[in-house]
Amino acid sequence: MKFSPYELLDRRREGDSWSLEELEAFLEAWMAAEIGDEQMAAFLMATAIHGMKPEEAMGLTQSMIASGESWNLRDEFDFLADKHSTGGVGDKVSIILAPWLASCGVKVAMLSGRGLGHTGGTLDKLESIPGFRAGLDRAEIIACVEAAGCAIATSTAAIAPADRRMYALRDVTGTVRSIPLITASIMSKKLAMGASALLLDVKFGRGAFMRDLEESRQLARSLIRAAEGSGTAVEAIVSDMSVPLGRAIGNALEIVECVETLRGGGPDDLYELTREQAARLMVMSGEWSIEPARARLDDAIRSGAALDSMRKWIEAQEGDARFIDDPGRLERAARVEEVRAGESGWVSGIDPLELGLIGVEIGAGRKRQSDPVDHAAGIVIHRRYGDEVERGDVLAELHLPQNVDVNAVSRRLAAAWTISEERPPERNLIRAIES
């Protein structure tokens, strides 16, 4: 298709829609270096300002899928589940959900990413396990799922390569928070992998990309629409990220919390959210209704089957699963410092964004994609939302490298807690389900 980039961009600036053919031609020309990054940046900014019609977002998603390989892994199994979170602080749900579902006979495969900014990455957490190998190709993912019932791997350069280049431009042009661009970025990778069913956890609140509930619901609906006709069934849970999820923030610390949860001893909010996501995927398989699915998941925890499934999965991806019974095999921080409450009352707020940023500051996350992470660094929360505290009680532990100003970080961490005279209302963790 012959086209004029200037004419297309002029129309986009005015808020006009492009056809699927025009989107495909523009993206192909950019990937072939026939048009430059400055023209793609202009497209991204105009899209962030004007938005897109649903059919355009679908078209952009399809064009980004077409820039690479389509694996269609559902062709290899009777049913294959996938899951994606839009990101949050302390969100380690995928690492619990995959072996938990596998222990119930539901196969799972996910392509996940590393963290950037205040939200942690699933692969950073998994790579704190000695020997764990995340770089799997299509055949290796299939083999891992056949052997252990689940696999979590890094997205390869062959899957939606246009997204990788486009995200780098979005990051430097202030166009990350755009619903159609987020939609195409997430769904191009997920649909290219091609599971039978995909469950999305779309988060909102202070620790999420989307701060507003209604905005998150709009994103959930956009993500679902982008999958129409793809062969992958999609549902979305909209969940609250106004406080951190669970107790642990930081890679090895979160892996330990995953093991505790699969033993049945993890935090209530983490158990609840993971269980509901897993149950929804079991229902999407067509083999379960919701209450029997929840009961089956609970049985897998009580019997130890879920933890056994985790051990089998970690070994299938070449990790040293002995850490499950001996957490000391994971990296440990050089120092652990307690942060204490300066007053008595009730915990009515914990700022997840601030805790995520502190995690980055002490090495648990990265400011740039090329930054290394300290797998041992992080935060363990002792007093959570709704807890009563006395002056001097431990609010949290800081797990730190030696080169951090512990006094400055401790003051900053303590200030992230809001202590009130009255007990706060109970949290409603799951706010909506979109399908």
Question: How would you characterize this protein structure?
Answer:
Helices cover 44% and strands 16% of the residues. It is built from 16 helices and 13 strands. Strand 1, helix 5 and strand 2 form a beta-alpha-beta unit. Helix 9 packs across helix 10. It starts with a helix and ends with a strand.
SSE layout and pairings?
Blueprint lengths: L4 H9 L6 H12 L5 H14 L3 H12 L14 E6 L7 H11 L3 E6 L9 H5 L11 H11 L1 E5 L6 H13 L5 H15 L3 E8 L8 H14 L6 E8 L7 E2 L1 H12 L5 H17 L5 H14 L1 H12 L18 E6 L4 E6 L1 H10 L16 E4 L6 E2 L4 E7 L5 H9 L2 E4 L9 E5 L1
Parallel strand pairs: 1-2, 1-4, 2-3, 4-5
Antiparallel strand pairs: 5-13, 6-9, 7-11, 8-10, 8-12, 9-11
Number of strands: 13
Shape descriptor:
globular
Alpha-carbon Rg, integer: 22 Å
By DSSP (H or I, 4+ residues per run), the number of helices equals 16
> Structural class, from helix and strand content?
alpha/beta
Defining key terms:
435 residues; alpha/beta; six-stranded mixed β-sheet; four-stranded antiparallel β-sheet; 16% strand; globular
